[in-house]
Every structure is written in C-alpha cells, then in structure tokens.
Fold each of these.
Amino acid sequence: GDLLQRTTLPGVFPCLAQSVNGVPLAYLDNAATTHMPLAVLDAMSAFEGRDRSNIHRGVHTLSQRATDAFEQARSDLKRFVGAGPAHELVFTSGTTDALNMVANGLALAGDGPPWLQPGDEIIVSGLEHHANLVPWQQAARRSGALLRVLRPDAQGRLHVDDLARLLTPRTMVFAVTACANATGERPPYEELLALASEAGALTVLDAAQAVAHETPQLMALACDFMAFSGHKMYGPMGTGALAGRRKSLERLTPLRFGGDMVERVGEQDASFAPLPARLEGGTPNVAGAVGLAAAAAFIEQTGRGAIDAHLRALRAHAAKGLAALDGVTVLAPHAHGSAIVSFVARNAHPHDLGTLLDERGIAVRTGHHCAQPLLDHLGLGPTTRASFAIYNTHEEVERLLAGVAQALEVLG
Ligand code: PMP
C-alpha cells in the first residue's frame, strides 16, 4: 500500500505532472502506452552518460560495461517473466516485432525446412490485436498453411471446448492473447495453451496487455513463445522481448542477417550463432534494454500483489459506474484480471466522447483498437476505452464517470 502510494507522488512520473486544457491530466490510456517513472529515466541516462559503447565485440572497459549491462538486463527480464533454465529471451523492438519474428521464422525456410508446411493448420484466437493476426495471415500465405480462428462467443469469451473441437493432427501453431486490448477480456489462456501444446502445436502468447499486471510466468505455462512490449510496462518505447522455450526459439529461421548473429562467415555462406545472438542481428537498443529491466525492477519493488489489487479495483469501479449510465454498454463486464474498460454509448460517437473528455483533461482512446475482426464479430463499431496503471486513482475514475455523463448530455 505504502509503496503504491509513493508511486503516485508528483515527480515520480514526470510526464504526468502537467495540466491539459487547464486541468490536471488524468491519463487513462495506459493500454496504449504507460508512462515512465524517474527510476527508468535515470537508469537509461546513467547508461548513456557513463557506459555507452557497442556490446559483445570490444575488450575495452566501456564495451565490457555495456555488454554486462545488456546481459544483466536480459537475465533480470527472464526472472521477471518466470523463465527457467530451459528458457531464453531475445530483445526486440516490441510485441509486433516479436510476433513477426515467430510467424515468419516458422513459415520461411532456413538451413532446414520450415516448421509450417502446406496443409498444416494455424489457429489464432478471435480476440487478437492485428499484431497477432496479420503476421499469421502472411505466414499462412507464405507456407501454404491454413489459418483457422477460435471465435469468441457473443460476449467476447473464448471457450476451451471450442479449441478442442478445432484442433487436428495438422495444428502446428496456436496463438492467443493474455488480455484482449479492445475489450479487456481475460481469456483462460493457461488452459488453452496447455490443450494446444498437448495436441502438438507450438503455442504463442501475446502478453502485451498482461506483462505489467498479472504477469504471465513462463515456467507455469505450456508456452513456447511469449511476446511483450516495454512501453506498456513503464519502460521505453521501441523495446520489448520474445521469451520462450529455448528449443522452440531454435526452430525459428533467423530473419535479420548481419553482425553479431553469425558464427563463421565465408564469401558465399555463413553459419549462425547460438541463441540469443542468433535472433539479434545488428547493434541492439542497449539503453532501451537497460530501461526495460529497470521498469521490471520498478514493478517488482512496487509489489505485484499491490499493483494487481489496485488495478482490479479501478477497473471494477469504472465498469460499475459506466454501466450505470443511461445508454452505456460496457464490454466484457465479467472480465477480472484486466485493467481495461471498453464501452459504447447509444447516442454518442466515441470520437466525440473522447474529444469532450480531452477538454476535461481526461485521456482515453477511441476507435477500433487494432482489433477490427473482433469488433465486427461482436457487431460493434468503434469503442471508447479507458485503461489504468499504478499511478491512477479512484478520484480519476470519478472524473471519468462525471466526464462521460456530462458528454452524453451534450451529445444526446
Ligand atoms: N498486442 C496487444 C494485445 C496490444 O495491445 C498491442 C499494443 N496495442 C500490441 C500487440 C502491439 O504492441 P506494439 O505496438 O508495442 O508492438
């Protein structure tokens, strides 16, 4: 409790200590991007101001320090996502980059044939962000595999029985989100991954919306690949990781060739380095990796239990208050374990609602949230989405509720 309160003190999150349209900012767009605490900014600036140098290739002191900082960040993050001795973590520029690395790495031939063969089947859930759908569409096209969708029910819920019916001996990949960014739905991903894995598929978890809250733990999951982004967990933009079983990561055909990822290079061919370097061609974002590890440390120091409880309470407060407003429908009202509340209002377009809220200093996101097939399936258009982080307060939820109520009067 104490630690959590300290994170909301002015100055801990510099970007939040400002007014928008003459009103203190209530930043409720955390599912898109969270803000960085000073601890993260300081860690990155200390690296840049003292250790900045290229990694892995130098014997000089700064290069060794930079290499140590990068590899320390990797091992800190592995611990953060519950990786065991059979797991590895590769730095990426984010979730999108990580999911593309998996989909293309399974679809394209490298030294050997690719994992995906013509006639194989890929199953993706119908809750996915475009980043966990479009790469699979492309992978299917490139490999001749078939793409099947595990559709949610009319309330946007996924069912384990439905997956059991979709699985066949040709199912080679199953991909699902740990939390749907458009609705806040928290699917039973543990059971889904376990079932697909037992059936022989490689399993992919999009943890973008779960990494900062109820963080999935690799050792407890039947998960081959888990993707996440730094900017949704109080870390820097353009950072992220692909973590997973080392054996499965080894199956990925490398897609980015160049320095650092090779072992021996001749004029006509090259052999590739072992993991993790194999999938990290070129100079990485070292300051970003340092910042990402600092963000994980910040979450751990604040206390995962306290964070999870706080975010659940904010979500419940907002969902209840919004549902009580005339003409408002909250998506996934049953969802627990998410920090997202997405809603539609009978007589108000989300764009207008978002604009009126901004006039009151309240930042929410409106639109399709990069999940068009899901909203189509639910018979919905664009929505308004509020999403919470550790620095948000119940007073900000009250401001949201009052703001929406007033906007609906103006627009109605
Ligand atoms: N998956 C989900 C569930 C997301 O919410 C997002 C970001 N909105 C992404 C993937 C893509 O993340 P990034 O843009 O950081 O690559």
Amino acid sequence: SKFKTALKKTVNVLNTDLRDIVKEGRLVDDAFLEEIFALMIRTDMGVASASKIRDDIGKKFRARKVEFSDLVGSAKETVREIMQQGSADVNFAESGPTIIMVVGVNGAGKTTSIAKLVYRYKEMGKSVVLGAGDTFRAAAVEQLTVWANRLNAEIITGKSGSDPASVAWQATEAAYNNDHDICIIDTAGRLQTQSNLMDELGRINRLINKAANKVSEGSTAPHEVLLVLDATAGQNALSQAKGFSEAANCTGIVLAKLDGTAKGGVAIPICQEFGLPVKFIGLGETPDAFAKFDVDTFVDALFD
Ligand code: GDP
C-alpha cells in the first residue's frame, strides 16, 4: 500500500489512459498498439520495455477485441519477465559487519536515503556506524551527524577536505572493532561524467576492502554499493546508472522520490539495461518513508 500511494501518479497515467484506449470495443491493430507504446513511454519505462509490452499485446490480441484486464494482465507479465532479477535482497555479510557504500549525484537523495537505512536497521535492533565520507561539503557531514545523533548511530567523520578514503577506512575498522552489524559509508555527490571523481569511487571501494581484510582476514567488502537515483530524473537517471555502475561496481539501486512522480516506470529499464536490482525505494522525506523493492508488488501497484 506504501508502494501504491507512491506510484499514484504513474498509475493514474496508466490506468485512466489504458481504459480510454480499450473503450468502445476497438480491435487491436497497429494504431491501437502505437497508443499502448506511447502511453508506456510516458511512464519513463524506456523504449525497449515499452516495445516489448506493445509487441506482447500484439502477439496475443491482434485483430481481436480486448478488455482492460487483458491489457493489464499482459503488461504485468511482460514487466515481471523483464524485472526478474530485480527483487534482490541486501547482500548481508555472512559474519561480521555488513559494509554498505552509498554513491550518487548531488541532490539525488543520498543523505536522506542513508538516514532511512539507519532507521530501518535500528528498528530491526541492529547497531549501525556511519562513515561521513562526503568530506567535500561541511554541510553534508553536519546533516549526517544530526541523523546519527537522532537515530542513535555511531558516526565517523574526518576533517573538512580530508581524504574520503581515510574516513571510509576508519568507518570500516570501527564496524569490525566495535561489533556493529551495519556500516554505511557516504560519498560526496558527483556526476557520472567526472572521470577523476568516478575513479575515486573505485579507490574508496578498494580501500574499504583493504581495511576489512586488515581487521578480519579473508573478508570481502563492501558488501553493497548502492547507487541512489532520483526517480524524477527520468532518462537522466539511466545515464547515471550506466556511469556509476561501471565506475563504482554498484550492486543495487535506491530509487528515491518515487512519490509524486508519473515516471515510476524508470525502475524497469534500470533493471533491464544494467541488470542492477532496485533494492529500496524512497517514498517521502521522513526516515520511515522507505520500502524494500519487490517486483510483484511494484508490478501490481503500477497497473492497478
Ligand atoms: P543528497 O544531496 O543526495 O544527499 O540529497 P538529499 O538527501 O539531501 O535530498 C535532496 C532533497 O530530496 C531533500 O529535500 C530531501 O528531503 C528530498 N528527498 C530525498 N528522498 C526523497 C524521497 O524519497 N521522496 C521525497 N519526496 N523527497 C525526497
């Protein structure tokens, strides 16, 4: 139901206009199928997904009359097929702390999403340490410190302008040494086109692994590299997914700001083109406005 509320705008586009397309007992022909395609495109699901939905409907129903429920059933089936790998859980460490690195462009919702993750894991009774790796912006460290205090998590900060990799190192060490369950490491926002800054993410990633190995031999970290994407960024979110997944070895997506956008369909091509599972969705500005992503729930919410 959280999903449903969040996807309301996307659903409104799909539902109202899909009903319009089938009314008056039209036969499924090319014009009909192009209307389906155009409608799907408006949700930002991308050309490949929209084409597949159209083609699947064409295969099943060409030259026939269809009901609204036929269209919805077919579209759901197609999206489920596309997003098969999209329902992954967080990859928790088998033993010791789970180290989660968080990356993304400025303004995507990184800080808020970290607060939501902390809230989620604290609610589960886990102990959490944060690494304030955005040493570039003093305000980012301050903001994260406020959340850490409010949510009762340890936080490791460095001096302004200090090496973010050293903060990541210290946070990783603290996670193992202080027996935390979860360690979340922030990084400064950057654009996927800034290649030196993209390389830096690779370096931070390697240093986290080194730190984990120093404290606990044979560990592999980080366990997750979550890319936070702004769902309202539409197709630009796709180019971010491409740039970051290559440079930072991303393992999953947090799709923030899914509330209030008609472009919720963007989760589909992210999954289809980059094989990156959407792990969480952001549904508002408060720490509890967050949900685990689930393909079936998503598909049902999208079309119902
Ligand atoms: P950062 O620069 O990536 O750290 O972005 P912030 O976490 O500071 O978020 C930028 C803005 O987006 C803030 O005003 C947040 O309150 C807002 N925001 C973040 N996530 C969500 C979400 O899921 N839904 C809504 N509606 N707003 C969000």
